[in-house]
């Protein structure tokens, strides 16, 4: 039985000239548990040393509902200030546009201030990818586009992306942008498969967007499946993983990576070993039969 193509060693970030690793590391929980600068630096090194070049954060990361807004960016900024050479080894991505407790604000004034604040916390002159974190329904996409284009022209941002946008929201913003989108960041996992059928991945392929998958392990539910559906998905991943000598986690990453849209899973672990382990997904090969078996288990019903 023929195998699906192996993921390339690098992918392009949309239509840009920026090459990224086929798997990324996210810093949602970087600032938790009183992590020190040296401890955070060890995680950055673990990712880079494993060949993971795309590092993804956001200004909201670290917020606990009352305080901590910007903490993850600030901690990473301290790491970069202590070791300036690290910046050139990574593709640095961040996000903005969430302003607790509004919750979302993409007005021109706030967007400008949010971009500048992220750069100050990160202690950098520019980021490689800046993403609108969640759509502000009250912001006209033309107004948002004008601010983002200005930031690219000013050299503060190299490329632009969106996160948690619908197909139509993505199309509307991209229509008004002079510097077109290069990425989209939806939630995708073997337990959240809506992107495969609602047009988001089809649009990504049509527009040449790199799909960056947040929560690729289903928010931890794959590690401890409880429902019959989750257990069925885990069993299929275990079957393929056992045959190829990898964990369920690695099998889950590789299942996403086998999609022709070039899905880039974002590893959420803040443990050096787990970050490095994720890169083994590049060696896993899927057949169509095995890939669809996971999808059928996730659907809970046979394909038509």
From TrEMBL:
Domain of life of the native organism: Bacteria
Cross-referenced SUPFAM superfamilies: NAD(P)-linked oxidoreductase
Protein name according to UniProt: Oxidoreductase
Assigned GO CC terms: cytosol
UniProt-listed Gene3D superfamilies: NADP-dependent oxidoreductase domain (3.20.20.100)
Entry's Gene Ontology molecular function annotations: oxidoreductase activity
Record organism: Novosphingobium arvoryzae
Domain NADP-dependent oxidoreductase: 22-292
PROSITE patterns named among the record's database cross-references: ALDOKETO_REDUCTASE_2 (PS00062)
């Amino acid at each position: 039985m023929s195998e699906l193509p192996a993921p390339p060693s690098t992918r392009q970030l949309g239509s840009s000239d920026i090459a990224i690793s086929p798997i990324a590391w996210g810093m949602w929980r970087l600032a938790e548990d009183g992590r020190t600068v040296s401890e955070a630096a060890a995680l950055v090194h673990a990712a880079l040393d494993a060949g993971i070049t795309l590092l993804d954060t956001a200004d909201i990361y670290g917020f606990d509902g009352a305080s901590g807004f910007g903490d993850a960016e600030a901690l990473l900024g301290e790491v970069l200030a202590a070791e300036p050479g690290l910046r050139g080894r990574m593709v640095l991505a961040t996000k903005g546009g969430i302003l607790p407790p509004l919750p979302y604000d993409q007005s021109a004034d706030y967007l400008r201030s949010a971009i500048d604040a992220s750069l100050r916390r990160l202690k950098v002159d520019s980021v490689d990818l800046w993403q609108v974190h969640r759509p502000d329904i009250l912001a006209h996409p033309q107004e948002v586009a004008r601010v983002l284009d200005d930031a690219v022209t000013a050299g503060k941002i190299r490329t632009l992306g969106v996160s948690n946008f619908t197909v139509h929201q993505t199309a509307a913003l991209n229509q008004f942008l002079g510097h077109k989108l290069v990425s989209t960041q939806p939630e995708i996992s073997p337990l959240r498969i809506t992107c495969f059928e609602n047009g988001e991945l089809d649009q990504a392929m049509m527009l040449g967007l790199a799909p960056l998958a947040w929560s690729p392990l289903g928010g931890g539910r794959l590690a401890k499946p409880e429902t019959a559906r989750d257990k069925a998905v885990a069993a299929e991943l275990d079957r393929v993983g056992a045959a190829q000598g990898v964990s369920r986690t690695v099998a889950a990453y590789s299942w996403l990576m086998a999609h022709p849209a070039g899905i880039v899973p974002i590893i959420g672990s803040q443990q050096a070993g787990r970050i490095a382990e994720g890169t083994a997904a590049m060696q896993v090969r899927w057949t169509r039969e095995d890939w669809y078996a996971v999808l059928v288990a996730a659907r809970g019903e046979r394909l038509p």
